[in-house]
Amino acid sequence: MSRPGIDALLERERSHLHRLTPHQAADAAALQDALLVDIRYAALRDRDGLIPGALVVERNELEWRLDPLCDYRAPEARHDHDRLVVVVCNEGYASSLAARSLHALGLHRATDLIGGFQAWAAAGLPVISPTPDAADVPRADV
């Protein structure tokens, strides 16, 4: 039996998503009540900053914090399976898999940000400045 590598898995999972560019995600948050969810780990957020208004949820808590039926969901998740959720990681890889995991919970409009936080910042979209002493954190997406 042939098993897919991560590249094939990522391509397959992305085929089920309507991924958004940074400007599309910003417009969706502003005009469509989309929830931006930052799953980057703390060191990356401290180094690079935050997207204003994004809900910060570490990847290992994502499903519990966004499941509309879970007692541990974040208040921003509400009891709403129809809300557009845009998952943001550092470069747009881990977020694709995370968005597909949200699909499995019934959040059928979950998607991710093409290029992740790095693409958001490069597009000149608003970023809350990082903490000054976190500049030496190495770059990584996962």
TrEMBL record:
Coiled-coil annotated residue ranges, if any: none
Domain of life of the native organism: Bacteria
Rhodanese domain sequence ranges: 30-129
UniProt xrefs under SMART domains: RHOD (SM00450)
MF terms (GO), sorted A to Z: thiosulfate-cyanide sulfurtransferase activity
InterPro entries recorded: Rhodanese-like_dom, Rhodanese-like_dom_sf
PANTHER family registered for this protein in UniProt: THIOSULFATE SULFURTRANSFERASE RDL2, MITOCHONDRIAL-RELATED, THIOSULFATE SULFURTRANSFERASE_RHODANESE-LIKE DOMAIN-CONTAINING PROTEIN 3
Protein name, as recorded: Sulfurtransferase
Organism: Streptacidiphilus fuscans
Classification lineage: Bacteria, Bacillati, Actinomycetota, Actinomycetes, Kitasatosporales
